[in-house]
Amino acid sequence: MEERASAVLLSDCPEIMKELIQNLLALQTLELSAEPLALQDEEKMSGLRSKLPKPILDHFDRLIARGKKGVAMVRGTSCGECHLQIPTGTLHALPHHNDIHICDNCGRYLCLPEAAVEVEKEMAPPPAPAKPARRKRAPKAAAAAPAVAA
């Protein structure tokens, strides 16, 4: 029951959901770095892990253990990792940060690049202007009289 209450509280606050995705991205960057981790990086990783709910962290760890990235950036209308199209409803829900979304194909957490969120807001179509009334066609002249030759 306690997990359900925390899930309801998490979905009510878009800032928290956005922070969770950012923490997952930071954790992924640290875990998949080619360089050996310094002590401060390991401390940062443990701090990020403590901020994430257990079910989300478990799913993320399963993906990392398989050698996959845990978070995929959305590229256009596709998942940045498996390159398959994301359903339209999911695409429209991503910028609102009401929930954490998972790719239906590869199972990675989906994340919009921040620039894409701003661009989507800017690209929202303005209301269509009223169309001008159509001009009426000039009535056809009565049967054209043949030209009289002089």
Gap from first CA to last CA:
104 Å
Backbone structural class: mainly alpha
Point out poorly predicted stretches: 1-9, 115-120
What string, H for helix and E for strand, traces the elements in order? HHHHEEHEH
Rg of Cα set: 28 Å
Q: Please summarize the sheet with the most strands.
A: 3 strands, mixed
Could you explain the architecture of this structure?
- A hairpin with a 2-residue loop joins strand 1 and strand 2 (78-79).
- With 150 residues, the protein is mainly alpha-helical.
- It is elongated and about 100 Å long.
- Helix 2 packs antiparallel against helix 3.
- A three-stranded mixed beta sheet has the order 2-1-3.
- It contains six helices and three strands, in the order ααααββαβα.
- The protein has one domain (2-122).
- 46% of the residues lie in helices and 7% in strands.
Write the layout of secondary structure elements.
Layout: H1 2-12, H2 14-31, H3 39-51, H4 54-65, E1 71-75, E2 78-79, H5 88-93, E3 109-111, H6 114-122
Parallel strand pairs: 1-3
Antiparallel strand pairs: 1-2
Helix pairs in contact: 2-3
Main attributes?
150 residues; mainly alpha; three-stranded mixed beta sheet; 3 strands; 7% strand; elongated; disordered N terminus
How would you concisely characterize the structure shown here?
With 150 residues, the protein is mainly alpha-helical. The chain has six helices and three strands, in the order ααααββαβα. It is elongated, with a radius of gyration of 28 Å.
